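Progress narrative, work stream C.
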Amino acid sequence: MRMSIPPIVWLLALPITIQAQKDTIPTAQIRIAARLADLSFTQPELDSMQDGITQYYHTYQSLHRQSLPNDVPMSLWQSPVVPGMHFSNLQLPIHWQMPKTVSLPTNLNELAFYSIPQLAYLIQHKKITSVALTRFFIQRIKQFGDTLQCVITLTEDLALQQAAQADTEIAAGKYKGLLHGIPYGLKDLFAVEGYKTTWGAAPYKNQVINEYAFVYEQLRKAGAVLLAKFTLGALAMGDYWYGGRTKNPWDLNRGSSGSSAGPAAATAAGLVPFAIGTETWGSIVSPSSTCGVTGLRPTFGSISRTGAMTLSWSLDKIGPICRTANDAAIVFNAIHGTDGIDQSAVNRPFNYSPSKPIQSYKIAYAKNYFDKITDTSRNEWKVLETFKKMGVQLIPVDFPDSGVYHTSLMSIVIGAECAAAFDAFTRSNLDDEMTRQTRYDWPNQFREARLIPAVEYINANRHRYKLMQKVNALLQQYDAVICPTRGSGNQSAITNLTGNPVVCVPTGFDNRFHLPASITFIGNLYDEGTLLRIAQAYQDATPWNKTYPKLFQ
């Protein structure tokens, strides 16, 4: 039966019909978009799709009119754990190895390169006050910060206030532990109320986020003293930020790499005893390696990311940048855990045994990576020799790489998540204010990633799950796997995707540029304690973590 439509109703519907027809997505455009997703449809199929795709388009427009700040998370939570894994909840006591005695150096500049236990001894035994130590490092930041272009905000008033409080507490017998009164710096993507949090990017250079990041709160509770907020490559990429390029302390004509550029450069140059960085893909390991310091990228989810800029929900990780693995253990012990806000973060024990014999560990090395280094005089091979001299029986293994990592899953996962985290940034053309606009910088990469189909992002994560299973099947057989930091394979992308922890430590200098070189130790999920003990054993047997850039001595 055919129904007649009253004229007035038809007239009222007319503008809507015309508007809907105007906004209908042409099938020719759908065909082109399908090709970008490696799909091909017939014309009848395109005709059938047209109305539905047009409805999707109007849904997108509606979503775009609603605000989504950077700190609003996804409802999907990444976990690095695969079926069959079991973890102990037993926290064992940590018996930190403290020096028997420490004296103030005749040349105070040497104080800049003291370890955390050495500085802690001086403070605990009242050979120096936290205020005096804080003023010493503030002066170094004022002296060298501009040279390195590594400082965004010097938090001098806050630092002196926290240092004075530490001295008062220690004088009253309320010593909190090894970080009490120790100065440090934060990568400037962590919020600290009352101070700018610029994310290293021109559009946000005056941004103030009035909350306290979880990692800042943990360090405050431990009695540490915040000296500065350090540079990061704009929106956590590279070492270029809105004020310039962060320099390498070993060669000021070169950058410090990124994105934790400032924390690594400042730690290497002795502007702070340690700093806190983040990694999504290489942002702790790369600058730590380049600047010759120790970087710990913990297990994904080991530290709550509350109050930190989001780049990628399933990849972002927080970790310490220090001069030794033992220092990294001290800092990680204070900052690991969760506040229950970051739903990917968990509370796991940190069991670190600084005196456990290195010979008791089962250590492998990635033979398939080392075999690509044909020059056996390179530092990577010397690392293996050092362990053999310590009595370790190294086991050659093939680290899962091209056999399981068939294509660049990382580019899809990081691309889609980063573009989503900065959707409004791209849509509002705020990206035009970025100081760098090359093909490889975030503005262009965010635009490119808008064309990653949701189906491909989801399936990339399904392939990622298979990768997690295969990598952990190998790693669970050993306490650690030694791997070249750079140039031999896809280890960095793979372990960032699987969420396994790594520590990189300096191993001397490369023959070509005479810049710091490093080695990487890969460990099992939530087993940072074992990884750091093995790294510290290597450092105890070598001089490289006690070698400092001459310009800053």
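Work stream C, second folded protein:
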Amino acid sequence: MTEPSSAGPATGTAADSDAARLSDLGYTQELSRSLSVLGNIAVGFAVVSPVVALYAVSMVGTMIAGPAWVWALPIVLLGQCLVVNVYAELASQWPLAGGPYQWGRRLLGPSFGWMSGWVWQFAVMFGNTTVAYLAAPWVFALIGVTPSPGAMVAVAAAILLTCMLVNAYGIKMLSCFVSLGIAAEAVASVFVGCALLLFFRDHGFSLFTETLGAEALSGGSTSMAFLAVLAVAGWGFIGFDACVSTAEETKNAGRQVPRAMWWALLGVGLVVILNAMAVALAHPAPAAVVAGEDLDPVTTAVITAFGSWSDKPFVAVVLVGFLACAMASQGGAARGVYSLARDGVFPFSRHVRKVNRRQAPIGGLIASTAVSCGGLLLGLNATAIGSLIAFGTAATFLPFFLVSLAALIARLRGTWVPSGHIRLGRRGTFLNVLAVLWTAFEVVNVCWPRAVLAPPGAPWYQVWAGLLGTGAVIGVGLVYLLARKPQNKRAAARAGDEQCGEPTAERSGGQTAEESGVLAAEPS
């Protein structure tokens, strides 16, 4: 398949080619297309974030399954690679912000696409809440203060507002801060992990065959403990889809976004596995982590190895990594809201779709930040934030499942044949089947109510948080879908754009000829 030709005189520039392709997909270039492939990789890397991933799952994983929990990491990484295969074919053909919404409506229709986008959007926004809340303790650790729940919420809100201001200055400013975060990740993850593994091991590799009695929390069942760890480890490998969120700001996006997703996921995956092993082998007392006596095994391992002088510097670089993750994730959320709003299918779309003079989606930034800050109210009850973490993981895997399912159904119907730069043919269909099975398993596994993943004495609704939270978002979305019929508003929005001189889709339902995989496909 050849790239769509420019609508005007050929200039031979990549910018013209990208703008022409976006125009063929029914949209004008409103965001600043200035990211290179390295910049796109950096955004994805920052959102997945080895530091955030490891701190979110290391302690919980060890308490549930002992040092043997690390075997869950390569399994989840392999499962997520199946998802990236599907996403790569879709992003190659339709390199648009708001991937689940844009792809879903093209594959299975506007209603399915809208629901996919709605679920994904709230998963990302509440994921931002979780990252900001988890970053707050590092601020207090840096200044040596023990925070109250109210202070934690206030600092987390300040982090979200700061990230919004950075994002409001445009993609170049975001890219600069993300690059600083990756430098911090390199120190806190790669350097420290390698040093721990090479020079400060207290245990042999046989440690990874031991559970140290952790399965007692799962009724003595090692299998149930490992299933719980697979659910926990899922948090460590989400976020690569942030590369798709910045597709309309990435040069030669059809080629570069799929590459960026692979680099981001595999890069973070290898670093997380390296560090999880290094921390376990360098920790002076893994049994204390299993017993719940050490709630921060990573810092314990680092300070034991490097000495007490390393405490504050390590806290500082970890905090920078958290902030970079929060900024990049918030930027992705804003672009997802923008993608829905410009089609008129998001509440208050006329205001939310606004782009400022720096070509940043300011309306989406304000809307997503408001929702994320609202979620922080759960943090006023110190134990309730666990509900948000469980819901965030479950709601993130649900869009992975919906996108994979939509792609598979469209393949089997023959209504979609991948026609971008990446076309896997029959192998793609096989991998798509595996991606559907993997994501379906993980959605059920994460939503499954487990007392072991909630604080001791937690109320019932926190044990059921994944299922209740996901069900609430889907329920509200269905009510809005039936009452307001947002899927039908896109045609009206595009008609209004046409009157203002903006390009509209050439085919009914808002699809252009290029959007239809069947019309544009070549034999694989």
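Residues 1-12, 495-524 have pLDDT under 50 and may be disordered. No further action is required on this item.
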